[in-house]
Amino acid sequence: MTITTEGAVYGCLGIGALLAAVLPRLLSRLPLSVPIVFLAAGVALYLTPLPLPEIDPVADRLWVHHLSELCVIVSLMGAGLAINRPFGWRSWASAWRLLGLAMPLTIGATALAVWGLLGWPVSAALLVAAVLAPTDPVLASEVRVGEPSAEKNDEDEVRFALTSEAGLNDGLAFPFVLAAIALAAAGESWTGGWLSHWAWSDVLVRTSVGVAAGLAIGLLLGRLLFRSRAGSLRLAEQGEGFVALAATFLAYGLTEALHGYGFLAVFVTACTLRRSEHSHGYHQVMHAFVEQIERLLMALLLFGVGAYAASGGLAALTWRGAAVGVLLHLLIRPAAGLLAQLRGPGGPKERAAVAFFGIRGIGSLFYLAYAFGEGDFGPLEREMWAVVVFAVLISVVVHGVAAAPVTSYLDRRSAESSRRDARTGPGPESG
């Protein structure tokens, strides 16, 4: 009896869904993450003789585009709903530093590395840099803030900084991706009208629309869910978790229709909704629902990444392309992150952890698939996929192994500091 492709696929999906439910608890105390397991599963299964379908992001670009897009927006909603800290310029200082300094520095240094090592056109170098710059909200779940709580400032600085950065920079990397597409279309020329159009439309207008739409939708949904005069519309009282999915699609769809940045709008909507009746238990219900959906989508996509790697997807990778991924994770992002946080919130070890955990993942796959659908980068497509996927593989393994021990160590330091403060009492400057 032979196994059919359809049967093999459904069997793998069933096992994957079961593992997505079981693994977080089994691995919670181990230096091993759920993404690593699904990545390894994709590699292992595609090295067997099972009749599994071919994974090719070039031929199946639309599937990669839309599946990764769905995973990212669901993750952004979960991240925004989890943040307990009230919005403010000072209270969110770590986020602004990472967005305003670390991300541009990372993009510039990575583009220079790609251009210098691989000799690619500036547009291709800029695209790879922009694709790999954002901290991924999906794979950063290992170091993200936990579920919503009634406390307003209970997140440690490391988890808050990485969660807020991942929530915002997936939208703010979009202008750099669009700049790479426009530069390629202009034949690598910096002259002409595209640069001014990009600065006005792609940076200022689309970012403003994303923020404004997110605020408006979050305020309207908060009023509807928690304070509607019609009891049947106060869905917070009914505990329907899938409303979070409705909010995600509504914010993303309407903002994209208005030519704004949907990723940015989803996160802003989630944060705004979180401020509505901050201590209400319904936030936990919505967060739990989107977290389950996110985990399933993440498992499917990382299984596909492992399958792609095992099927020869990295054949186009050269040692110079691999060097870009290594430099990004071990030098460029840590250095940019540390520079951005000089004299910022948190202690030296907390700042080092934030700088180190610049995680690359599902968002990078989305941006690359999107760019190849909108622009022409010539014969470099497969090699660019190989470089980006290799960088994602490094992040999944290195950050996945480091996440549990690093966060456990920082949690122990925080607990010891709290016990010392409790024993000694407030300092003279506190009174």
Task: Annotate the secondary structure layout.
Elements: H1 5-26, H2 34-45, H3 61-82, H4 93-118, H5 122-132, H6 157-172, H7 174-185, H8 194-227, H9 243-257, H10 262-275, H11 282-310, H12 319-340, H13 348-356, H14 362-374, H15 381-424
Question: Could you describe the 3D structure shown?
Answer:
With 431 residues, the chain is an all-alpha fold. 70% of the residues lie in helices and 0% in strands. Helix 1 crosses helix 11 and helix 6 (157-172) runs antiparallel to helix 10. The radius of gyration is 22 Å and the shape is globular. The termini are far apart.
Tally of alpha and pi helices: 15
Sequence stretches where pLDDT stays below 50 over 5 or more residues = 427-431
What is the domain tally? Answer: 1
Name the beta content range: under 5%
Category from helices, strands and their pairing? mainly alpha
What tags apply to this protein structure?
single chain, about 425 residues, mainly alpha, Na+/H+ antiporter like fold, 15 helices, about 0% strand
Summarize the entry for a quick read.
The protein contains 15 helices and no strands.
